[in-house]
Amino acid sequence: MSLAVSPAQTMETKRHAPLHLPMIIPAIIISLLSLIPLGFIVWIAIASGWDTVRDLVLRPKVAELLFNTLILVALTLPISIALTVSLAWLIERTNLPFARLWSWLMVAPLAIPAFVHSYAWASVVPTLHGLPGAVMVSTLAYFPFLYLPIAAQLRRLDPTLEETAASLGHTPIAIFITVILPQLRLAICGGALLIGLHLLAEYGLFVLMRFDTFATAIVDQFQAVYNGPAANLLGGVLVLLCLVLLRLEVFARGDERYARVGSGAARHAPKWRLGALTWLAALLPAALTLLAVGVPIFTLARWLISGGADVWRLDGIGPALWQTACLSLGGALITTLAALPIAWLSIRAPSRVQRLLEACHYYVGALPGVIVALALVTITVRVALPLYQTMATLLLAYLLMFLPRALVGLRASIAQAPIELERAAVSLGKPPLVAIWKTTLRLAAPGAAASAALVALGIANELTGTLMLAPNGTRTLAMRFWSYTSELNFAAAAPYAVLMVVLSLPLVLLLRLESDRESKP
Amino acid sequence: MSFLKLDNVTKRYGKSAAVIGLNLTVPAGSRTAIVGPSGSGKTTLLRLIAGFESPDQGSIALGDTLLAQGTMSVPAHRRGIGYVAQEGALFPHLTLAANIGFGIARNSPDRHARIAELMQQVGLAPSMHDRRPHQLSGGQQQRVALARAMARQPKLMLLDEPFSALDAGLREAMRDMVGDVLSTAGITTILVTHDQAEALSFADHLAVLRDGVVVQAGPPQDLYLRPKDAQTARFLGDAIILQARLEDGFAHTILGSVPTDTLSSRGSATIMLRPEQLELTSASQTDPSSTTSLGRIVGRTFRGSTWRLLIEHLPASSAGLRFPSLALETSSIFTIETPSLAPLEIGATVGIQIVGTAHILA
Predict the structure, then answer these.
(1) Which of A167, A182, A262 sits opposite B93 (nearest CB)?
(2) Among A23, A212, B188, B292, which is disulfide-ready with B351 (CB 3.0 to 4.6 Å)?
């Protein structure tokens, strides 16, 4: 039987190959594109030669940046973790009053771009700066990234485990430490990684807090000397830091499985009664809401009132809105389209090649916008000058930065469309691509639209990459906001901040609904 | 000798009551099964005993210790009652040995020896020491859960449908193993299940729960043969429920006359027969003048060792003529299992003979 190839087998291969090929080729092209920034850094390191690397990297300034960045991460992450675990436990597992309201408010800070948080604090407490300011403002701006997965995981925990531990004589506090915390490990690692990467990549927040990190130093270098080797090599160190962070997360996550063993119907865990501590406990979310939502809103309102009608200059706001809308929608469209092949492959034909392609996107998605921008600037200047500072380059940068974001949503929605429909369409005489288009993509459209929206909102608030790559004359909301803030014209910047916040509200809604859906047992 | 005693216990969730004024005593050293359909309150009852919930009213006492009275309740971690959940509820982040040792103090000098001993008791190979829960089969997970619950040497062990997730064959073997291990250790055991066959075979004391109250409790054989009402009778197994006229210790039914298990009553009543009390004879051998009633086979299902026959009662029998008011309660069709050696064809007429005594339902 090993010699004869049965007709059924040949039919099988014929049926599969044409379905996959039109998807694999674009997926490979996109993956190669997304390797550009990483390749650029490697090439810079090699091309500069050891002497240049030593001169530019092994110097006190870099040591200081390294120390700053590391201490920032080492302080912000533990504080954020302790804060969000207590908050999530209070909101999800106790009878804290207004729990539902708090759980929405804990996500709300995401609607405010990090540099707007920073702007708010800089104008309310002008003395706040340096490391304390950086740690505090970044905790306030980014803690929802931890809160969302931890709260979702807490809702999903099987209360039987806690009951079993109680029947084995463990006190409630011992149960929290030995049973609940270990099961939050994955959520904590994932959220902490996301915050860590943001800390490495953020530019605006730290400039306003007068705190030097690699990202701020690279942008400063870049603005002083375009395409200088100093900026590029600092970029190399930053990439190394990102990779270290990614490895650390893999290490901390371990290879354990935390899913429920078994499949029984999960009950909802009973809520702890806070009793006399109720109002004391409610102080925590209330204080955090005040600091992370109240202060920015208060500041914006104050500047808007003091600025009066004069700050709403339509000749500035109108074009900025229009340009932001065009860039966001255009960027979202091409990013979603680019994510399609790899998303489809990962659901319909998972394989080693597909996992490799996906890893390319994953690592590039983790790289800061500055790196992507540096790479594209250098490459356009050296290889394709006509593309330097064009919309095409800017859109490509957005594509590279936000591809992972598009992938996540797209993959989930494609997974919900049954493959049988594609097969049925093929058997009814539709060519493969038409079959995919008419069945799976049609059904995945709402999910794809949601993930495109996530990308668009990300682009609308993107500052670093846009500053470095945008063609002359481009003035997005974020850029306008940034230039007024840099001139310390806080009143004139306020309308742009308000518009960015309004634009980000749907993002918060989407993220929150996503986490609600994930935590359904 | 009662060991666990629940007195007039009520537990409400919002407006609906899961358990209402429930009384239950569990004898020391017994294997008690609490059986009931889903929604009968049996899981709530178990959670009340374990201390995961506290009752709204009533009291729960274990030996001389009061566990709960009214809304005052000893928390679960101070009760010392063992608990095995439906699917084991192993801690996914701990190894097999760490799971078993979870209830043993970390600095206890004989910790390792205890774990090894427990693993041996429940039949887990020492080589599995460092396995993770997801690497274990369903049966192995239940063994770990049992060993873990036994580690603290509880006087009372609660089993919450621990076999329901296992395959049919494994289920029986596990049930025997668990019963043996717990009996040897001298631990009083309460098993909660919706599976009457499991309850009957596991328990030496059975409590049937319905709508939040204990309908009947006692030895399994008693409950099977002498259920209090038709619903309990049907819940514990196939039952044939007949209208009868009682006279001089006999119940006269359309299927013939049978001695009753009590002599006191007279007049009309409802009686219950278990299908195994009906014997089928080939109709040709039956003397047409005898009092044996006749039935016709209208359907059959092959079940391996038996045939499950669907038999329609033929009303032209003499018993039917003598008592025209009597009829089978539901319809004139009932099912009987017969050994598959001598198959009866569909359409065949058979004689029906009753053996044993009829049980009069309340």
Answers:
(1) A182
(2) B292
Residue corresponding to tokens 């319905």: B210
pTM above 0.90, yes or no: no
Task: Using an 8 Å CB-CB cutoff, list chain A residues near B141.
Answer: 261-262
Burial of B38 (0-12, 13-18, 19+ CB in 10 A): exposed
A117 by Cβ neighbours in 10 Å (0-12 / 13-18 / 19+) ranks as: buried
- Distances from the Cα of A12 to the Cα of A18, A22, A198, angstroms: 11, 17, 46
Q: How far is A517 from chain B (nearest CA, A)?
A: 23
The CA angle B356-B359-B362, to the nearest 5 degrees, is 180
> A166 vs B75: CB contact, 8 Å cut-off?
yes
pLDDT at residue A261 tops 60: no
CB neighbourhood size of A322 (10 A): 12
Provide CB contacts within 8 A for A117, sequence distance 6+: A109, A137, A140, A141, A205, A292, A296
Question: Helix count (H) and strand count (E) of chain A?
Answer: 26, 0
Question: How far, in Å, CA of B296 to CA of A140, rounded?
Answer: 81
| Complex ipTM tops 0.85 | no
Q: How many Å lie between the alpha carbon of A403 and the closest alpha carbon of chain B?
A: 33
> What is the mean predicted confidence (pLDDT) over A44-72?
86
**Least confident segment among A221-230, A320-329, B42-51:** A221-230
Output the pLDDT for position A363: 74
Handedness of CA A20, A24, A27, A29 (dihedral sign): negative
B152 close to A (CB below 8 A): yes
Give yes or no for B106 touching A (CB within 8 A): no
Q: Do A171 and B132 touch (CB under 8 A)?
A: no
Torsion on CA atoms B306, B312, B316, B318, rounded to nearest 10: 50
Question: What pLDDT is attached to residue A297?
Answer: 94
Domains of chain B: 2-225 (3.40.50.300), 238-360 (2.40.50.100)
Contacts of B83 in chain A (CB under 8 A): 163-164, 167
* Displacement of CA A367 from its chain's centroid (Å): 11
Structure tokens at A143: 């803690």
Q: Count CB pairs under 8 A between chains A and B.
A: 92
B132:A258 CB<8 A:
no
Nearest to A414 by CA among A355, A520, A339: A339
Structure tokens at A160: 């039987």
In Å, how far are B38, B189, B268, B276, B331 from B228, measured between CA atoms? Answer: 20, 25, 17, 19, 22
Query: Would you call B74 an interface residue with chain A, using a CB distance cutoff of 8 Å?
Result: no
Q: What is the tens place of the pLDDT at every residue in A73-100?
A: 999 999 999 999 999 999 999 999 999 8
- Residue B206 binned pLDDT confidence (cut-offs 50, 70, 90): very high
Determine the pLDDT at residue B319. Answer: 45
B chain contacts of residue A270, beta-carbon cutoff 8 Å: 52
CB contact under 8 A, B90 and A166: no
For the segment B335-346, what is each residue's pLDDT rounded down to a tens digit? 888 887 777 788
